[in-house]
Design brief:
Blueprint lengths: L1 H12 L7 E3 L4 H7 L2 E4 L13 H17 L8 E4 L4 H11 L7 E5 L12 H22 L4 E5 L2 H11 L3 E3 L22 E4 L12 H11 L4 E5 L11 H8 L5 E4 L5 H9 L3 E3 L13 H9 L3 E4 L6 H6 L2 E4 L4 H13 L1 H14 L4 H36 L12
Parallel strand pairs: 1-2, 3-4, 4-5, 5-6, 7-8, 7-10, 8-9, 10-11, 11-12
Helix pairs in contact: 3-4, 4-5, 7-12, 10-13
């Protein structure tokens, strides 16, 4: 929802009308807020990857749902944005666009590897990589390379996709919620340190490591407190209620919340953070990005994250991150202890990074709108030339035959 709202807001500034397609199971509040049309009954997080036919059948189902939602005219816009694409959605779009005489300009983000759960698993890589080549090959056939712009959130993932697809893939964070002008990050060194962990509590986010890690930190640091937020509903960790009960029983210095946060509540929790804890599984997040990490960079919040995660490299290289060197509870506890010991230095470097952080989305959308407008103008002139040529050829049939000139 946040991505849809951000894209719509930026395009409205450019006087571009938008329409949005969303999950068929979107809440009424989401539909009302975004004005979206419920469409998709499948999600990338619902893929099993265990049946060779799953990809083709899933893409055909998505294409049928797209066709139904778009109506008789199909995808009628000049610019198509896919803020969270995978090979199945790309294949579905390709199936639909191949029927269109004037294809749109496309902008899409690939936020995770072809197999989102096990990006480097050998037995799965060949199948999903072939899915990607097939899907993007058909998309290029349908719209042409010149109308296609691809982005990832990390250089590592962009490099992997570039090699896999033989296409140019850039690096731009995915559409984040609309941002208001920021006050300079404040110096919180005189207050008790607060460590915040928030977001969807998917298994790969590492919440299972927190109880043991937090206990170890609380025993050594008497003033630190933890704000732990994790939404399990709709995630692959919906059965982890016992884990959050265990966290809630760790004492008054550990606050636990599982509610879906409003944007205001989300920002309030970030404002309380001296450190943002991101104990993500490096096997899953080896090349993936993190939207919450991008928020931390913008707000000047030091992060604690695995050294092997690509999204964390800017913080670790820039001196505003504390690396989790060993991915277990003890490794997380040690990274937190190191962060607390270097609190002032990490905070100073984080404030510097925030001052240098730039939002690239508005400029990118300006470029895409301009490209779509130019393509539409070019297509219109090509269409007019074809009509004019056909008319001249038709008229030529009724002209008298040209006579040879008389010899002199």
């Amino acid at each position: 929802m946040n991505a849809a709202l951000r894209l719509a807001a930026e395009l409205a500034k450019l006087e571009v009308e938008t329409a949005c397609l969303a999950s068929a199971y979107a809440e009424p509040e989401v539909i009302q807020t975004t004005g979206c049309v419920p469409c998709f009954t499948r999600s990338v997080y619902g893929r099993r990857y265990d049946q060779p036919s799953e990809f083709a059948s899933g893409a055909e189902q998505m294409a049928a749902e797209l066709a139904l939602a778009c109506g008789p005219r199909g995808i009628a816009g000049d610019l198509l944005l896919l803020p969270c694409a995978d090979q199945m959605l790309v294949q579905a779009v390709a199936l639909l666009l191949r029927q269109r005489l004037r294809p749109p300009t496309l902008l899409l983000w690939l936020l995770y590897p072809p197999h989102f759960q096990r990006p480097g698993e050998p037995q799965s890589s060949s199948n999903v990589e072939q899915e990607c080549r097939t899907a993007f090959g058909q998309l290029v056939d349908a719209v042409g390379k010149g109308r296609l712009r691809l982005f990832c959130e990390t250089a590592a993932l962009a490099d992997d996709y570039g090699k896999l697809l033989s296409l140019d893939v850039g690096v731009v964070p995915g559409p984040a919620p609309a941002r208001s002008p920021l006050e300079p990050p404040t110096d919180r060194s005189s207050t008790a340190p607060t460590i915040v962990c928030l977001g969807y509590a998917n298994r790969a986010k590492g919440y299972a490591l927190l109880p043991q890690a937090i206990v170890a930190v609380l025993e050594r640091h008497r003033d630190v407190r933890f704000l732990i937020h994790g939404v399990t509903e709709g995630s692959d960790a919906a059965d982890q209620a016992a884990l959050f009960r265990q966290l809630a029983e760790l004492g008054p210095r550990v606050s636990v919340c599982q509610d879906v946060l409003s944007r205001a509540d989300y920002e309030h929790r970030l404002a309380e953070a001296d450190f943002l804890l991101l104990p993500y599984d490096p096997e899953v997040y080896r090349t993936r990005g993190s939207g919450i990490f991008s928020e931390a960079e913008r707000l000047g919040i030091p992060v604690i994250a695995p050294a092997a995660c690509a999204f964390a490299r800017p913080a670790l290289d820039g001196g505003w991150g504390s690396p989790i060197e060993r991915y277990d509870a003890e490794g997380v506890a040690q990274a937190i202890a190191n962060a607390l010991a270097n609190r002032s230095a990490l905070a100073e470097q984080a404030r510097t990074a925030a001052g240098e952080c730039r939002d690239r989305l508005p400029r990118l959308l300006q470029e895409m709108v301009a490209a779509a407008a130019a393509e539409r103008h070019s297509q219109r002139w090509r269409w007019l030339r074809r009509i004019a040529t056909a008319m001249l050829r038709s008229a030529a049939r009724y002209l008298p035959p040209r006579r040879n000139p008389l010899p002199r």
